[in-house]
Fold each of these.
Amino acid sequence: MKGKFLRRLYILAVMIFFYLPIIYTVVFSFNSSKSLSTFSGFSLQWYEKMFHNKDMVNSIFYTIAIAVLATLVSTFVGTLTAIGLSKSGRILKAAVEQVNDMPIMNPDIVTGIGLLMFFSTLAVKKGFMTLLLSHIMFCIPYVILSVMPKLRSLDPNLLDAALDLGCTPMQAVTKVIVPQITSGIVSGALIAFTMSFDDFVISYFVTGSGVNNISIMVYTMSKRINPSINALSTVIIVIITAALIAINLVPLLSEKNKNKNKGV
Amino acid sequence: MKALRKLVYPYIAWAAVMIVVPMLMILVYAFTKEGNSVRNFMFSLDSFKRFFSDPVFSEVLKRSLEIAVLTTIFCVLLGYPAAYAMVRSRFKIQWVLLTTIPTWINMLVRTYAWRGMLDNKGLINSFLGLIGLGPYKMLETTFAVVLGMVYNFIPFMILQIYNALEKIDKSYLEAAADLGANRVQVFLKVTLPLSVPGIISGITLVFLPAVSSFFIPKLLGGGKYVLIGNVIENQFLTAGDWSFGSAISLIMAAVIIVSMYITRRIDRKISPEGGLDK
């Protein structure tokens, strides 16, 4: 029994290690003083300061706008590509998957500098557009990776049946394939959203003209002690936690729907 | 059927432009001279010569490797017992979820939090003060940088080892015990060898970001703490020397590939030949 106690104690210690900094950030974002160690009272002053700082407010706006747009585009393109890949020849499939893995396997800094040189060479003005294009670029691979397994487990006759029964190929995709792989698409979209929302390294290299996301904001402001960073961090933590709860609820909900359909 | 294949074409075009071209640019720039227009491509190894002839850069590369190896070792030593305890817990799914959640929260935000906690007047020092210790200077030390990296990357290690441990068939453990092995022997001769693949993939997931990280050393190590990632950042954002920056990132990629190769070789030596599950 001593072993069991030690194991529990160890897990607990690890969890404290994981969550202490996160809790610390949230708690001290409500601190009434600038202190890093003593909580001197509840106050919303750092949130007020954050909302009066135009750059910080803009960074929240940019982060959400980029994440939403990148998620929409990458989910759409990624899903269609995955469907196409599942019907493609072995060589083409292997080649596309190989290239698709590159942004995932490469260190972010390598992807970042590659894109920086690419955009600069084309003399594209760095800012919102370059940020968005880069986010779409590194989000699509995750969508493809989460949709592919669902397609693999699909009955290949399903598509033939739909076509035989008079569906056009596009109808077959929207009415037969997509409904079967919804859970893969949704989890791909959520991964894309959190990837885009949290990205620092790649964004840092491809942005410009004052367009900053929250991560870049935290990085550039971190040189001095500034508790409004804690407020900004708390905003991130809340949004991502909400997205995470959604991720974990979606499988449960779709499970419920399935059961309902079965019942009917 | 064939009509659906066309759905891949837009992405092929996109990936060629947005993924392949930038990677090729790194290659081209690494092997050309700075200031030399890339259009009249002049092959040159100058950037590589510059890197290896200047002791400052070799020192940075050495330090980056040391920090990454140290981080990886700590992640294995601290992560293994955690994964082991989690597999044997009644609430294993909950623990896995709680280990995953931090990895989804912005690394920069979580690393920044440590700045407040490690500060001379921060949370940890004031706690140590209560029991009559310190204050210790923790920020801007190697300790802070390694701590920051372990903090950010250990969840990946734990999850990989957990998956490997979870897959082990319990009947192996029972068989070993029936054949007279005590608990330590069961662990050393059955559990540990079977979990090596998990440790190896964990090492991959920790070592790679640890070598290339540049914001953890900057946030926790201070401006003077320079690792290879910081040198690359400087070349692109301050010095504007693309050729040298590209060459360094290729050197970094080579270091990563060689390290991964060595790790796999060790893996093949340790793990049981043929594997039990094959």
Note: Chain B touches chain A through 80 residues (CB under 8 Å).
Amino acid sequence: MMLSVRDLSVVFTDRGEPFTAVDRFSLQMDRGETVGVVGESGSGKSMTAHALMGLIRRSQVEVTGSAVFEGADLLTLPRRELRRYQGKELSIIFQEPMTSLDPTMRVGKQVEESLVIHEKLAPGERRARALDAMALAGLPDPAEVYRRYPHQLSGGMRQRAMIAAALVLRPRLLIADEPTTALDVTVQAQILETLKAINREQGTAILFISHDLGVVKALCDRVVVMRQGKIVEEGAADEVFHRPRQEYTKLLVASRPARKKLRGGGGDG
Amino acid sequence: MGRALLKRVLLLVGTMLLVSVLAFVAFSVIPGDPTSSVLGIEATDEQVAALRARLGLDLPVWQRYLRWLAAFVTGDFGQSYKFGLPVAELLASRAEVTLVLAGAAFVLIVAISLPLGLIAARYEGGIVDRIVTVLTQAVMSVPNFVMGIGLMYLFALVLHLFEPKYVPLSDGLGAHLRFMLLPALAVALPKSAMTVKMLRGSILGEMGQDYIRTAYSKGHSRSSALWRHVLRNAMIPVVTFLAMAVGDIMAGSIVVEQVFGIPGLGRMLISSIGTRDYPVVQAIVVMLASVVVVCNFLADLLYRVMDPRIDGR
């Protein structure tokens, strides 16, 4: 078992009142597996992803349970040791590729950043590995994109740059937090194809977070449906999509949200 | 970039012209006449008329301005009415003094506020942050001449660390700068407080951005994310702020010169306004304006280097 999450709960205090964003979330994932987490806004799916990735400040938010990744509990690991996994063994891509890239740094430098942090390489070697990752992420003309700034790229290219940065150290697990929500439908389909190819060819496991069960079905073997912080249904992606047992899941299948409304929308719970 | 640069240079020249016109017009509308300070109050009308003709004061204001401008662009700043000396000669050493003071103040502002702003933001809510916040709030509201008097009292009368007697550059650069430290501090402290506050806010604002979350996800610690990503982005507004502060620094230097008895442009400016010594006033005004305008121009260039999104616009 690559990842074993047991009873993950995320509780934060909102104006003195405790609010449970994620309630006893459990999940098992094997190497190379693709799992989708689906739910509406505020269902706790993004929070789950961020908790696994170590992006929640423990001093402000209470995170309980365990998430054992290759033998180490990501939730209790000291920060310093957790950082050795971040960007190396597990990576994440986000919903907003524009704001997720540093506007003042060249794209190539951002792609190779994990290499700078985790490995000691000569600049030429780093650059070669970055260009490899960019080609893998489906960026045309990586050498050209390498010296561009984020604002000079289209939304789809930016997200591909994010994917390249996440994959540069060939992590075992890629967490994709609504990576296509901010993109056009055609670009969305292309990015999904790229993720699929990466999973097939590199054996990278993908935990795919989305509000769109249709998108998840296209990529994932298994799916977990979340509502108000809890898992309400799980199973093989096809099974859940075609024969949903919960009314809520049926609604997620039926709702094909209008892209326009979602575009430019901020984060979600 | 080339076109943008040309536009900036034209704007720079235009601003300077505007400033010189405004200064000229201002002195033609306020009452007072330079002849009385040169000839005394008992001069006859004939003497006054003769002097006015000699100084060109009998001409209409626009003609006087054009004459002045034509001479100015060839490097001739005219003669002081009162001292009978070329303005350039009269002002050279004084301008140097003021520029040293203002330059030292600027360096102090950067040297004080960058580390403090960084530490306050890095350890937000910590003990250093809280002390810095209280101090900046207090220091920010002190006018610089009061700061000058306070510093002078503390360092000269209480601690005896400072000899309140001007040391010119001719006594050696080290001794000159040592004297200038305190007046420069008086100019710098209130501005430093504002810069710290601004930098701290800017850093904390950037710390909450999505791209910092990305940096953490790659394995950056808070400190390394700060160095590699936050600082550059956070400095962009601060550079603009510092450039705008140059005007205040010049103004502050002129005031603080009075407190410390420094023979810079400030004293000269005030006495020349009193005696209506137009060529001197005009030269000082244009000089001060050019420092401000040139610094803003440099900040603009720096801004373009720091923020790739601006380039080419």
Note: The domain at 3-28+43-235 of chain A is CATH 3.40.50.300 (Rossmann fold).
